[in-house]
Amino acid sequence: MREELGDVLWYTATLARLLGLDLEDIAAASLEKTKDRSRATPDDERPHFDTGYPPHEQLPRRTTVTFTPTPRADGRTVIVLTREDGTPAGDPLTSASHIEDGYRFHDAFHLAHAAVLGWSPVSRFLLGCRRRSRPGIDEAEDGGAEPSPSKKASAPWSSPTPAATTTSKTSAASTRNCSPPSTT
Questions:
Q1: What is the pLDDT of residues 154-173, one digit of tens each?
Q2: What is the full DSSP assignment across 3-47?
Q3: Above pLDDT 90, what percent of the chain?
């Protein structure tokens, strides 16, 4: 790998020389751009795309979701997401693969979108905060379609949560508890 990276540097230096550019200037500009991208956005500058909606339709501004690996009778391990109040958030997840690839933890990315970007249709569904008061917004931005009857029948909030074996916490964006989606 060291040799390949050396080749990349050689090509970069050669290309910069041919274009009349200085590598030090390129590196300094790149560092400035990187600093700006990683600058924390103050809370008062962060957009809340659901301001003006009823509180139960707003993403939480602070919450904790627990990812619990839970063994099943068939030998597979699923991840059960649980909200602060103990209610499940979404369906238990498997890796959906013959090879263990960690896919079952992918909801962390959806929650990160909600926490960092202030927007995530999947997190709205998981936390039961879809903006149903405006059907056009619900359909176009929050994933609008209702789960099929078979999905409703197997919804995790209609059955008890399996016992936890280990936990790992991820914070997303509220102190308000959103209600799980209606199963009626």
A1: 444 333 333 333 333 333 33
A2: HHHHHHHHHHHHHHHHTT--HHHHHHHHHHHHHHHHSPPPGGGS-
A3: 31
Q: What pTM was computed for the model? A: 0.55
For residue 66, give the 3-state DSSP assignment: strand
**Strand pairing category for 168-172 and 77-83:** unpaired
| Residues 31-41 pLDDT 10s | 888 887 777 77
Residue 70 φ/ψ, nearest 5 degrees: -130, 115
- Virtual CA dihedral for 164, 143, 184, 175, nearest 10 degrees? 50
Q: ∠ CA 53-55-61 to the nearest 5 degrees? A: 105
Backbone angles phi, psi at 116, to 5 degrees: -90, -45
Question: Which pLDDT band holds residue 175 (cuts at 50, 70, 90)?
Answer: very low
**CB of 62 closer than 8 Å to CB of 177:** no
* Alpha-carbon span 115 to 89, nearest angstrom: 16
The values of phi and psi at residue 65, to 5°, are -120, 130
Backbone angles phi, psi at 143, to 5 degrees: 90, 10
Half-sphere exposure of 151 (CA within 13 A, CB side): 9
C-alpha dist (Å) from residue 137 to 57, 69, 94, 132 = 12, 34, 30, 8
- Rounded to an integer, what distance in angstroms lies between the CA atom of residue 184 and that of residue 180? 12
